[in-house]
Amino acid sequence: DGDGFTCGRDAKGQYLFDLLCHHLNLLEKDYFGIRFVDPDKQRHWLEFTKSVVKQLRSQPPFTMCFRVKFYPADPAALKEEITRYLVFLQIKRDLYHGRLLCKTSDAALLAAYILQAEIGDYDPGKHPEGYSSKFQFFPKHSEKLERKIAEIHKTELSGQTPATSELNFLRKAQTLETYGVDPHPCKDVSGNAAFLAFTPFGFVVLQGNKRVHFIKWNEVTKLKFEGKTFYLYVSQKEEKKIILTYFAPTPEACKHLWKCGIENQAFYKLEKSSQVRTVSSSNLFFKGSRFRYSGRVAKEVMESSAKIKREPPEIHRAGMVPSRSCPSITHGPRLSSVPRTRRRAVHISIMEGLESLRDSAHSTPVRSSSHGDTFLPHVRSSRADSNERVTVIADEAYSPADSVLPTPVAEHSLELMLLSRQINGATCSIEEEKESEASTPTAAEMEALGGELRALCQGHGRPEEEQVNKFVLSVLRLLLVTMGLLFVLLLLLIILTESDLDIAFFRDIRQTPEFEQFHYQYFCPLRRWFACKVRSVVSLLIDT
Questions:
Q1: pTM higher than 0.70, yes or no?
Q2: Compositional bias of type Polar residues: which residue ranges (predicted)?
């Protein structure tokens, strides 16, 4: 690595993303994305076709996170080990934050795979009785579960290399009902809390400890939103059509849900990226939001991965720290800082390594002060449901929001920071994470965290643009459409009356009695009057 790299203020998201993937030596990059959170605690995916700075609308600093955006349908089939390792880190993080919820027996096996991958074979000299209790794999632990984890690690996984354990972990995680779930908190029409999510296999709705809906991608015909209301149009067998309606906490959350749905449907359902179309959230042309997925689809990504021929890149794994408080983390060498320049630009200082996909909380549902706890699910007793699609996913309620942390935002900073810590497998306790929400990390604390990825944006942030009323925007769109149609009609009229184009379509129109009457009684007199006025104006200008 050099001292860093610089991307201009108008650099697109794709440029920044490509720089990160180049630093990670990652070729199968289509599964990943960059996520950030705005001051209202609303999550966003960085759009690659738009300017980075324009998407970050509030005052810096900003925290961005490298995340898995599209979970592979078969993670074990990924071509390169570096890709599998990054997906492994993401799913391990999902497990820790309660997003990958599963039954106790599955949880114990997954945790044992993590232990084997990161501390190796069981060694009585290094691993005393109760050693598994010193690691935090899930939001909540029990002694029985910890004993089960240690038993599996001791007896069943001996001899597995880190790569083998990670591969087995991915194969097991893939079979779980909540694999690939990026939960969006909502309410159904009855006011019951629910989590909506898009997976490699379709759309799911989770309530309590059950999956109450699962709809395959080929059954989803349309996604739409209006304000806080999200609509999913489903067409099933026997021409049965269903509209599922849910209510998001805020209009911004609903729009984010809609955009995620559009992207996931395009990625997993389409055969070619050339089939991607711009989608509108409304049936009216001049109303609503429009969005278009800009990447490749899953089939194209798999075909491209099969063509990769290179020596496997070296992977620097870091072992877990055997403590709930994570007292020590091995840090890589830090690169020198990037000097400021007078030119307005985004300076990104690449540090050694990348943050563990577990450490930041931006991938979990964000608890917004605007809606509070109203949209968080509560543990419920098992509910009777005759729906055949209802599936019990775990022994307890699905509640990933329990580990939510706010985004640290400094009020008076003029720097745009893209923070990222060194890849490490150390699992930190929930208590430590809660302590981190008390204050924004200082420069000294960031130094102690080791490897960082900083993006510094110089100059004062421009004031936020005033939001234009939606009704005014709709009227403006309607006027533009009307003027466009009138212009087209005028152009067609001029071609019909003034041109000598001998096309069958034009010839048939010219021969109709109605057109001849219009031409001689209205158009010709109007043309003579207009020509006379033009001559008068020209003569007046010449005389003066």
A1: no
A2: 362-372
Return d(Cα 223, Cα 94) in angstroms, integer. Answer: 26
Question: Which residue, 463, 403, 526, 446, is CA-closest to 98?
Answer: 403
Q: Among candidates 219, 202, 207, 210, which has minimal Cα distance to 261?
A: 202
The span from the CA of 241 to the CA of 219, in Å, is: 9
Tokens of 418: 């893209």
CB 249 within 8 A of CB 371: yes
Determine the Cα–Cα distance for residues 158 and 296; give it in Å rounded to an integer.
Answer: 40
Task: Report the SS3 class of residue 406.
Answer: coil
Q: What is the pLDDT of residues 349-401, one digit of tens each?
A: 323 333 333 333 333 333 333 333 333 333 333 333 334 457 777 667 766 74
Does an H or E element contain 294, and which?
A: none
Three-state SS sequence of 358-372: CCCCCCCCCCCCCCH
Question: Would you state the structure tokens that stand for residue 298, as one six-digit string?
Answer: 């899953």
Give the span between the Cα atoms of 63 and 84, in whole angstroms. Answer: 25
Amino acid residing at 446 = M
d(CA 541, CA 539): 5
Enumerate the H helices of 206-269 as residue ranges: 251-269
Torsion of CA 183, 185, 187, 191, to 10 degrees: 120
Local structure of residue 69 (DSSP, 8 states): S
SS3 43: strand
**Which one, of 374, 379, 375, 376, lies nearest residue 394 by Cα?**
379
Of 153, 148, 210, the closest CA to residue 177 belongs to 210
How far apart CA 276 and CA 292 sit, in angstroms, is 7
> Per-residue pLDDT for 417 more than 90?
no
- Residue of 186, 220, 221 whose CA lies nearest to 206: 186
Query: Among all chains, which residue has been given the structure tokens 């009323």?
Result: 469
Q: 499: helix, coil or strand?
A: coil
Is 200:77 a contact under the CB 8 Å cutoff? no
